[in-house]
Design brief:
Layout lengths: L6 E3 L4 E5 L5 H8 L4 E4 L4 E5 L2 H9 L4 H11 L6 H13 L3 E6 L2 E6 L2 H9 L7 E4 L4 E4 L4 H11 L3 E4 L26 H11 L8 E5 L6 H12 L3 E5 L2 H14 L7 E4 L9 E5 H4 L24 E5 L6 H8 L5 E6 L9 H8 L2 E4 L2 H6 L6 E8 L3 H9 L2 H9 L4 H11 L4 E5 L3 H11 L3 E2 L5 H12 L5 E4 L12 E6 L7 H9 L11 E8 L3 H9 L1 H5 L4 E5 H12 L2
Parallel strand pairs: 5-9, 10-15, 10-16, 11-13, 11-14, 12-13, 14-15, 17-22, 17-23, 18-20, 18-21, 19-20, 21-22
Antiparallel strand pairs: 1-2, 2-4, 3-4, 5-6, 6-8, 7-8
Helix pairs in contact: 2-4, 3-4, 6-12, 7-8, 14-15, 16-17
Length: 568
């Protein structure tokens, strides 16, 4: 045990972790596996043992003993007795209730007779029970598989689904060893480990769940590897048309699939094939004036006998797709994401309907192994001009952030950063279109936002990749699934309030490994002592948990430091 351990575990499940302690990083890497980061000021980071974080740890194979031993190893004081009991009680709930297939029936089993009695008497469960089957089991109505799992997790009993899968129509797919451009291609060790964790040897214990990997780590490749393992026709759900076409390009480049086997289902094309790639946007499209339950494109889920459904960026899964997913529990389901954080708090629905976390690789581990670029993060604080201070202080609560985030004093700072990084490929990222238009004009750089046609977006992204464009100004449409491997600098001028997953995705735009091993630099510009600064601290939470540190600068000190270095 370290002589002066860095953690203090409180009786309410809070874990206080001292950043300056020599064992901080080791402790963080252990604690982040089973606790949620709540806040991360300079010296003490606060984690919380939550029910879902412990269930995810259990689903990844962690035992109660490993969690308790990990906490004890880095705790300065003995663990509170109630916390030991809480960890045991919470983790032991995972698997008390199981769904199995028995004689053609969907059967719910429970190893605790009192919990089973609670389930039988539940008003919400009653419509889904076909009939009792012995003392500790129930026959569940076939269409209720997903809904039952949602109900049970909200009752506090995460259901382990071992009922198996419909195999789907076969798909002959192999990963290639040489891409279409003649480049060697092979799986990285952690990609293979992620696939194997999901597949679980083809048993009923695999086949549904979420793989968590940072942007730039090759989640798409993991998805294609899973497709090879499953060997069945596949439906892939993506965030937008650009991401959709990137998936298609990757499939044609790195697998044996041919163009006639991979189809696009979007606003532009509506083709269905053995592998079909679509977007959440088209699936949730509704004609105006129709019932909110009518989604005309939901029939895509039944147009083929799918053996696998892949949910890209699963943390963005829209509520209507949760509803249809509840009916698809007999299909294998793979969720891919850089972060399980959902801003709507529906992590438990991802857990119950897509599946528990199957694999998670800390970002800093991949950085240390040179699979993603080393990143340096800076928060630069600027002042308001005098004429903006009054506007900020009299604004309503929601408008305060907009006023602070669009502070015009950020513009000259953006220009200075761009000029300093004269040899780099730079993304300027923001939330507010008028602010981005001003920056694009100032830098004489192209801009991509929601109204930019898909063909124009793809053309600009291609020119950026080819080095014909050095600076690209982008709105939140570029947060997800955009492959820009040469981007090495990101400047964030405004964000979606306190969105932790957005911060992670934006850093991810520049984490692709660089040809010469160059590092990446992430700048976020905030207005001092405002909602902008407050939300920035919330956005940084997830990345802080992953081990990234933000250097805090005052804008004047930051620019002076650059001048000092350039005059050496």
């Amino acid at each position: 045990m370290p002589r002066n351990p860095p953690a203090t575990v409180l009786s309410d499940g809070t874990i206080l972790l001292e950043v300056d302690n020599p064992d901080y990083e080791n402790a963080r890497d252990v604690i982040m596996r089973f606790a949620d980061l709540v806040k991360s000021p300079e010296y003490i980071h606060t984690y919380l043992l939550s029910v879902l974080s412990l269930w995810n740890a259990a689903s990844c194979g962690f035992t109660t003993e490993e969690v308790i031993d990990g906490l004890s190893r880095y705790s300065r004081y003995p663990l509170p007795e109630n916390i030991i009991v809480y960890i045991k009680d919470t983790m032991e709930r995972f698997g008390i209730v199981k769904l199995i297939e028995e004689d053609g029936n969907l059967v719910l089993t429970c190893s605790d007779e009192f919990i089973m009695e609670e389930i039988k008497r539940s008003d919400k469960m009653e419509p889904h029970i076909q009939k009792p089957l012995g003392k500790g089991s129930l026959i569940i109505k076939p269409y209720s598989r997903g809904l039952v799992k949602q109900i049970l997790i909200k009752m506090g009993y995460p259901c382990e689904d071992l009922a198996g899968y419909t195999e789907g129509d076969p798909l002959d797919l192999l990963l290639v060893s040489v891409t279409k451009e003649g480049k060697p291609f092979g799986l990285r060790p952690y990609q293979k480990a992620a696939m194997d964790a999901f597949w679980a040897g083809g048993s009923v214990r695999g086949g549904s769940g979420v793989i968590v990997l940072p942007c730039g780590a090759g989640k798409t490749i993991v998805g294609m590897g899973v497709m090879e393992l499953v060997g069945a026709q596949t439906l892939i759900l993506t965030t937008n048309v650009v991401a959709l076409r990137q998936w298609i390009n990757e499939l044609l480049d790195k697998t044996s699939l041919t163009e006639d086997m991979v189809k696009e289902y979007s606003g532009d094309k509506k083709e269905v094939g053995p592998v079909t790639v679509t977007t959440y946007q088209i699936l949730t499209y509704r004609k105006r004036g129709t019932s909110e339950e009518i989604y005309p494109h939901f029939d895509l889920f039944s147009k083929r006998n799918w053996g696998l459904i892949i949910y890209d960026e699963v943390h963005l899964l829209p509520a209507p797709v949760f509803r249809i997913t509840a009916d698809l529990q007999a299909r294998r389901r793979l969720g891919l994401t850089a972060t399980l954080v959902r801003e709507d708090g529906r992590e438990d629905d991802v857990f119950s309907l897509i599946g528990p976390k199957k694999f998670d690789k800390p970002w800093k581990e991949l950085e240390a192994e040179n699979w993603i670029a080393t990143a340096h993060c800076h928060e630069i604080r600027v002042d308001f001009p005098q004429d903006k201070r009054l506007e900020y202080h009299i604004a309503g609560e929601r408008d305060k952030y907009r006023v602070a985030a669009t502070n015009p004093e950020k513009l000259p700072l953006v220009k200075a950063i761009v000029e300093h990084h004269a040899e780099d490929q730079i993304l300027v990222l923001g939330q507010y279109i008028d602010q981005l238009e001003n920056i694009a004009e100032l830098l004489d750089a192209p801009m991509i936002y929601g109204q930019t046609p898909n063909n124009v977006r793809e053309e600009l992204y291609a020119k950026f990749r080819e080095g014909k464009i050095r600076v690209l100004v982008v709105s939140k449409v570029a947060n997800f699934a955009i492959d820009l491997p040469d981007a090495s600098v990101a400047i964030q001028v405004s964000g979606t309030f306190g969105s932790r997953q957005e911060e992670a995705q934006r850093l991810g735009r520049i984490l692709r490994p660089k040809p010469q091993g160059e590092s990446a630099t992430f700048y976020t510009l905030v207005t001092r002592n405002t909602k902008d600064q407050e939300f920035s601290q919330k956005r940084q939470l997830f990345l802080t948990e992953q081990g990234y540190k933000y250097t805090i600068w005052e804008s004047e000190s930051f620019l002076n430091e650059w001048k000092r270095r350039s005059n050496r």
